[in-house]
Amino acid sequence: MQFTMPGRLTRRFNLILAAPLLLAIFLAGCAVPERPIGQVDNVAAAAGQLYVGSEMARIKAEFPLTPRPTGSPQAIAEAYMQRFQPGPTPRIFQNTLVYDRQGRLMADLFDEGRRTWAPLDRIAPFLLKAIIATEDGSFYRNSGIDERRLVGVVAQGLLAGDLASGASTITMQLVRNLLLPPDARFDRSIDRKASELLLARELTKLFTKDELLEMYLNLAYFGHLAYGPEAAAQTYFGKPASDLTLAEASLLAGLVQRPATLDPFINPGGAKARQQIVLSLMVRRSYITQAEADAAYAEPLQLAEDPNLRAVLAPHFLQYLNEYLAQPARNLNLLRAGLRIRTTLDLDLQAFAQGIVREQVDKLRAGFNLNNASLVALKVGTAEVVVMVGSADFDNSAIGGQVNVTLRKRQPGSAIKPVVYAAALDTDEVSPASVLWDVRVEYPIGDDRTYVPQNYDERFRGPVTVRTALANSLNIPTLKLFDALEPEQFLATANRMGVAFTPEGLQRAGLSASLGALEVSPLELTTAYHTLANGGRFVEPTPVLSVTDGLGRPITLPVTLAAHQAISPDTAFLVTDILSDNAARASVFGEASRLRLSRPAAAKTGTTTEFRDNWTVGYTRYLAAGVWSGNNDGQPMRGVDGITGAGPIWNQFMEGVIADPMLRASIGAPDDEAAWVFEPTPGVSQVAAACPGPLYCRSGGEYFSYDWLLETATLGGPYAGSFAAGVMAGVDVELADGSHVMPGVCVQSYTAAGDPAAQVALALPLGVGRLAMRTTAPTFDGAGDNEVGTAPLTTLPIAARGLPLVNTAAPRVTTAPLAPAVVDPTIYRERSERLADQQAEARTWALNNGQWLALGPCSEMEALTAAMYPGRRSVALVMPPPPPPVVITDTVPVETASPGSVGAVVSPAAGATVAGVIPIVGIADHPAFVKWQLDLMIFGVQETFLAVGDWRAPQPTQLFTWDTALYPNGDHLLRLRVVRSDYNYDEYFAPVTISN
Question: Residue 805 phi/psi, 5° resolution?
Fold first, then answer.
């Protein structure tokens, strides 16, 4: 029959056999500083020697403690833990404290628990004495092992049948926490206990007692996720470990044995009872008197706020901070590194912005299916992230609230256009006064298909300046400008300004990249705008002002992208001046749009296809902010655009900062309004000129860069590409069939633009960038490498160049055919098909709108018209005829709304005759008001957008400044729409007659 002992008997039997061997360790080689245990027989000593020898060999192989790690106790502990306990680094996890720019605590971040390594000189002596008295009274005298306590524990284990704890010294506990993996720390086997004893002795040989005590204390668990005395003092009492009183220190010392059950937040009575035991042990060890112990015990327990219950502030910013520090260049584990970070965020600004975002989303959610928005703001100059609102509600999973949208890439729509214009201005492809033609254009896209771009209002404006095109976000001129740039030019500019576009993405997007087809994050796009605000200098956004370790030693963070001059300061000013020109954008956005602030501000909106994304991004001299609104899943909104979806958030935030002295001070913005003005750079000059009627020109004259002025000095001046001023002659061309056509006028003699005798006419487009006419010496068939060659064209004779103007009713003066002559290389220009198309479009527009184009100097008309009209017979200079009459159609009669309704066109009054520039005054209000929109029905039929606004006008208010000269004479219809939150609207009309 086989006999099997019960488990308890087996353990007791094993202990009976093993206990002598365990005790023999000390006889065999362990030094015992206090006194010898006594004599044991030689057999036991010999067995102990054998056991110790084999155990030492095993332990040295399993736990190589030498060579001794160098550095502080913290460095030593980290080295050992990385050697014996693989895991995430740093192995000694420490919590990170994050503060806002004003020094206010934002978050306490950690993964396994809180710890701040504290040297002994930063720990209250009361706590050191309490720990030693409680855990290891002979600590400073023993060899890492207290043999008296060990004998008692072994004897108790023989009686109980189990090897209980209780004999562990501070050094033995350190062995468990420092060297043993977690699954072996609570193993009660003889082998594990032997390892603990022998390793404790080895550590005592390698390190001083103070080093061992510091490592032990900082690895010890005090409960409530607090490791080490500093974290424990902060967790329970809200103070550093160096400031602990006797009562507080004795309470903490009692937690180490049973941290889970004695947690003062959960079991204050148990913690208090344990405190009394600790105080009595301190009295026994003569560390304190009984009177001191009694006073400490009588002291009421005053716990700090439970740190586990603190709200996490600015969670999206903290996510960004974590990602920023984890980048390879920095490689800091925010949850384990024990940092003290003073961030760039301002909690007051953050709370203010968060409230605005939430309020606006709640306002538009039901009517427009707009469920989310984000806002990021940078301090101009340093690119410090002072606000990061990643969503309308972090805790709302239905809208993807935990996703930080400021870091997610979305299509920016027209908000990318300032980068396009910056690329063109920076290389002097255009100036702010250069004319771009807003007329119908087709682009081939393969498979016999064409792309016909449209403006947002589906209206063509003809010739517009770069200033007008950018300020009013016109698509067609922007596409034409982008088409004229080298793709690499735009890509390089965008990358330098802070937008991470790729060649592959640009190739896929093609022309649509200029209208926002390439995705970009709000932070990236706001960074690009910050580059404009910062004089063209790119600075990498940063969430950090300073970083120290737990001991206050500074840590320098490397910069991933070095600051650099992305575009010239002159270009940055020119773009800023356009984006801040409220008069320039008024034709689309109105005089009082959300882009206008009480201080000078540059801003731009963006809206993507099917209203999937709304953007407003802009800046003052001190603050740049970008707002996105929409739905995280890309679901379309209902009819809400950048000015109405994102614009109010941007406007309220920026105006709130401007109005609040405390918020202004947080970003270093001055109170003096004059200090907010965008100052021209030394490299730009303002040049005044008379502006032809179809164009909007900047009040006081346009700004030009010095390089542009230098390049155009011999080409007719800075406005030469926009319009010509001088004595004009009509260019009459006789075609091959004998008919006549007048494509425009030429300049007989140039004069200053302000000369009262000067005539002003729009210039024939000569192209920009790669589509520009290039002044070159042409090469013809039959010409050698060193020959100019001859052209099969005729030129006007010298006498004809001074030909006087004649009345169109008089006989035409023609030129006789001449023999081929050598072409003057200064007037010959190559033309691309695209440029020829643009010139044809411009001529058609001019003919349809009663305008003349200045084709160039009269001396060039022979060659130019021969190229324009192959086979033409002759060309003559004549007096320009008056513009053609405008054909007027019947109007559609409508009823106007009464002034007392929620909407009305008050001025001009119904039936009024108007001319020149006039204000449009209206009423636009409703309990569910969202926005108003003003349109013109040309001849009562063709719908033309004028302006939009999202502010209420319950009383007669000027909505728009209307330049009637931009529209044909005749009877038309003003229409005002008041849009409600359910996306329905009411319409109000006023018939008017334009008579210019």
Answer: -70, 145
The C-alpha atoms of residue 377 and residue 386 are separated, in whole angstroms, by 6
Token couple for 270: 């148990």
Q: Token pair of 761, please?
A: 């006419």
Q: How many residues does the chain have?
A: 996
CB 285 within 8 A of CB 132: yes
Tokens read off for 65: 């403690």
Say how far apart CA 417 and CA 427 lie, in whole Å: 16
Alpha-carbon span 750 to 736, nearest angstrom: 31
Please state, in angstroms and rounded to a whole number, the distance separating the CA atoms of residues 646 and 628: 6
C-alpha span between 536 and 422 (Å, rounded): 10
Closest by CA to 559, choosing from 543, 571, 575, 579, is 543
**Within 13 Å, how many C-alpha atoms sit on residue 494's CB side?**
28
User: Could you write out the three-class secondary structure of 8-63?
Assistant: HHHHHHHHHHHHHHHHHHHHHCCCCCCCCCCCCCHHHHHHHHHHHHHHHHHHHHHC
Name which of 120-124, 475-479, 765-769, 833-837 the model is least confident about: 833-837
Q: Do the strands 912-914 and 985-994 form a parallel or antiparallel pair, or are they unpaired?
A: parallel
**pTM over cut 0.90:** no
* CA 527-324-515 angle, 5° bins: 30
Q: In 925-952, at which residue ranges do the beta strands (DSSP E only) sit?
A: 929-938, 942-949
- Percent of the chain as helix, strand, coil, to the nearest 5: 35, 20, 45
Distance CA 149, CA 170 (A): 13
Chain segment 334-391, per-residue pLDDT in tens: 999 999 999 999 999 999 999 999 999 998 888 889 999 999 999 999 999 999 999 9
Query: Which residues neighbour 242 within 8 Å (Cβ) at sequence distance 6 or greater?
Result: 118, 122, 123, 124
